[in-house]
Design goal:
Layout: E1 6-7, H1 18-24, H2 40-60, E2 67-70, H3 73-87, E3 92-95, H4 100-109, E4 111-114, H5 124-135, E5 148-152, H6 164-174, E6 179-183, H7 193-196, E7 202-206, E8 217-221, H8 247-285, E9 290-291, E10 302-306, H9 312-321, E11 324-325, H10 341-345, H11 350-353, E12 356-360, H12 367-388
Parallel strand pairs: 1-11, 3-4, 3-5, 5-6, 6-7
Antiparallel strand pairs: 2-8, 7-8, 9-10, 10-12
Helix pairs in contact: 1-8, 2-8, 3-4, 5-6, 8-12, 9-12
Bound molecules: pyridoxal-5'-phosphate.
Pyridoxal-5'-phosphate binds near residues 74 and 186.
Length: about 400
């Protein structure tokens, strides 16, 4: 066992906040009602869910009645893409660096990706051109009147923040009826959302990226958005999502969001300072290191770098041995490293992307964690270069 454990994978999942744990505990014990029932035990559970709905509404900037609790960001994204398509069939457009939770449902209903630039910012001119071609009825583009355009607020690998308001404007100027969906899963811990997302129709968020438990999330669907359930059952959530609520999870999610609302600015500033110190230290200590999306507006906690001549998988192995938990890209179910579609879409050369390292800091990251990473990463890189030589 390494002497020190440094967790720099908050973009994959961030530790449960104490506020969330404390709020959940009664719901793992003496409180246990099914909120769909009519008696007092059930009503108590329903009250807890309604209170959580109010908190989500405050965070996103919507009405409590617009919130649909789900099993996480993936289900929220699927419901947005497939649910809008089911209600109003038509092509779906999504940014090329969206999470697979958006890209896979998009592919399943027939869709197109919108390119991004070298910083990972969605290309508004390309989006406008695609939509204009659709307006002109150019069959070659296959973008007949789109039913949905999906763009993430911030990317999970490189952290780039997207111009969501501009995307919504470009879409709605041409197709006022097209729905705009924002995947805010990575952004919600860091950015005030209400203004940013004012022109969107649907928003996905996830609990475990903000210090709530895993397996809970929400889709916000504003009034008038065409949307149909994609999994059928009791229709507990606005007839759009079925299944008995995870009351403990929803209560924990809400408590974590409450902590985010109270501490966001201070946490973001502290995390940004630590991230910048980590970046400066790595630039100084690792020859040839390239910072991905340098100069872009990024999330405070995300630092994505590429180490030339080094394989991510070997680097991550050595870092794990040294007690530093990091990632090469978005976590995938098998744990295996696959080429990143995000880096490919940004035009990062394959040679460079082989040495990708995502360091994502969060609310619990300390100065000691940064010191540890600054010792471990250059040492691991040196060792791998020696072996290669
Ligand atoms: N969207 C983005 C941008 C993500 O980063 C993730 C998770 O990494 C998801 C969606 C999926 O969320 P969940 O893990 O809650 O299913």
């Amino acid at each position: 066992m390494p002497d020190q454990l440094t967790y720099l994978d908050h973009a994959a999942t961030t530790p449960l906040r104490p506020e969330a744990r404390a709020a959940m505990l009664p719901w793992l014990g003496e409180r246990f009602g099914n909120p769909s029932g009519a008696h007092r035990v059930a009503r108590e559970a329903r009250r807890a869910i309604d209170e959580a709905r109010d908190v989500v509404a405050e965070v996103v900037g919507c009405r409590p009645g617009d919130v649909v609790f789900t099993s996480g960001g993936t289900e929220a994204d699927n419901l947005a893409v497939r649910g809008v398509h089911a209600a109003r069939p038509g092509p779906v457009l999504a940014g090329a660096i969206e999470h697979d939770a958006v890209l896979e449902p998009m592919r399943s209903v027939g869709g197109h990706t919108v390119p991004v630039d070298g910083l990972g910012i969605v290309d508004l001119d390309a989006l406008a051109a695609l939509l204009d071609a659709a307006t002109a009825g150019e069959a070659s583009t296959a973008v007949a009147a789109p039913t949905l355009v999906s763009v993430m607020v911030a990317n999970n690998e490189v952290g780039t923040i997207q111009p969501v308001r501009d995307v919504a404007r470009v879409v709605h100027e041409r197709f006022p009826d097209a729905a705009v969906h924002a995947d805010a899963v990575q952004a919600v811990a860091w950015l005030p959302l209400p203004d940013l997302l004012a022109d969107t129709d649907l928003v996905s968020i996830s609990s475990h990226k903000v210090g709530g438990p895993q397996g809970v999330g929400a889709l916000v669907a504003r009034p008038g958005t065409p949307l149909r359930a994609v999994a059928l059952g009791g229709g507990q959530e606005r007839e759009l999502r079925s299944g008995t609520h995870d009351v403990a999870g929803i209560v924990g999610f809400s408590a974590a969001l409450g902590a985010v609302l109270a501490q966001r600015e201070a946490t973001a500033a502290a995390v940004r300072a630590r991230r910048d110190r980590l970046a400066a230290g790595l630039h100084a200590a690792v020859p040839g290191l390239v910072e991905t999306a340098a100069g872009a507006d990024t999330l405070p906690g995300t630092l994505h770098v590429c180490l030339p001549g080094i394989e991510s998988e070997a680097l991550l192995f050595l870092l794990d041995e040294a007690g530093v938990c990091a990632s090469a890209a978005s976590a995938c179910a098998s744990g295996a490293q696959q080429a990143s579609h995000v880096l490919a879409a940004m035009g990062v050369p394959v040679d460079q992307s082989r040495g990708a390292l995502r360091l994502s800091l969060g609310w619990s990251t300390t100065d000691g964690d940064v010191d540890h990473a600054l010792a471990a990463i250059p040492a691991a890189a040196d060792r791998l270069r020696e072996v290669a030589a």
